[in-house]
Design goal:
CATH topology: TIM Barrel
Strand content: 5-15%
Number of helices: 12
Structural class: alpha/beta
Shape: globular
CATH superfamily: Aldolase class I
Helix content: 40-55%
CATH architecture: Alpha-Beta Barrel
Number of domains: 1
Length: 310
């Protein structure tokens, strides 16, 4: 199995959870989706995140989905599982279950109940106790959690968390924070961890790479965009990275609309053959005819621009 550790780089794609048209968990489509992602060069998969509709799954479904993903991946890339929970009993139970199934590690975000730096740090002390030897990713996503973590408190957490191997950076705007975290590790103030970015399907990916990110951990119906942008940037071809990114930007932006973003992503993944149904479980959005027309236009324009960049 590829290691999930502080050297992680590339693209850890946040996956959707496929359902049938009737809303049942679709394990056959799960296999198709995994193959689709791996064929496009991702270096890891992250499941049971916010865009994976984790809160809409039963405990049995979450484990069944994890099992299917891990079995289909067959150790080719790390599989990271979101286990965030205000309660440590639930977090510990899910962590033990997914690690027994073969997951590479887990991801944890702070609950909305913590506010001060001391409260945040104390919460992650308890995360360390709960997870024990399991490698984990610190998710900084204040738009979803309502918790603002300053660079100072994040560095405090990292110093106290020897098994935290990655930061998922999703603050927005957050380029200065990302740069501060990387500068601290470069100076030896804290051990180096992998920093993958998750802002809005990669809406700031080229700039984040220039500030010290090691890659992306987010979702987009064209994962090859992030794979190719990261690869170009890593080989020093920054202008090529920006040109590729610009070609996908209008569709990536459209996919990030509050309210309908997940429906857009599933519609596109369905159109690309990655999943059999675009179904989103309730409560969830539905696309209008105008939405679908917008998407079709953006895809045509994206295809045209990409052909010009070959």
């Amino acid at each position: 199995m590829n290691a999930f550790d502080t050297t992680a780089r590339g693209v850890y794609l946040i996956t959707v959870t496929p359902f049938t048209d009737s809303g049942a968990l679709d394990l056959a489509s799960t296999d198709r989706m995994v193959d689709f992602c791996l064929e496009r060069g991702v270096t890891g998969l992250t499941i049971l995140g916010i865009m994976g509709e984790a809160t809409k799954l039963t405990a049995d479904e979450a484990q069944a989905f994890t099992r299917q993903v891990v079995q289909r991946v067959r150790g080719r890339v790390p599989v990271v599982v979101g286990v965030s929970s205000p309660g440590f009993a639930a977090m510990g139970e899910l962590t033990r279950a997914v690690m027994d199934l073969g997951a590479s590690g887990v991801m944890v975000a702070p609950p909305s109940t913590v506010r001060t730096d001391d409260q945040i740090a104390a919460y992650f002390d308890m995360v360390n106790e709960t997870l024990g030897p399991v490698p984990w990713c610190l998710q900084d996503h204040p738009v979803a959690t309502g918790v603002q973590m300053s660079p100072a408190v994040m560095l405090r957490i990292l110093k106290q968390s020897p098994r935290c191997v990655m930061v998922k950076h999703e603050d927005w705007p957050g380029l200065a924070k990302l740069a501060a975290l990387r500068a601290a590790s470069d100076k030896g103030e804290v051990g180096r961890v992998s920093i993958l970015t998750g802002n809005g399907g990669g809406l700031f990916l080229p700039e984040e790479l220039s500030r010290g990110a090691d890659g992306a951990m987010t979702g987009f119906a064209w994962p090859e965009m992030m794979v190719d942008v990261v690869a170009a940037h890593c080989r020093g071809d920054v202008e090529r990275a920006h040109d590729l990114f610009d070609a996908y930007l209008p569709l990536a932006r459209y996919e990030q609309q509050a309210g309908i973003g997940l429906a857009v992503r599933k519609h596109l993944l369905h159109s690309r053959g990655a999943i059999a149904s675009p179904f989103v479980r309730k409560p969830g959005p539905r696309l209008s005819e105008r939405d679908v027309a917008d998407i079709a236009r953006l895809v045509r324009r994206q295809d045209k621009r990409l052909a010009e960049l070959v």
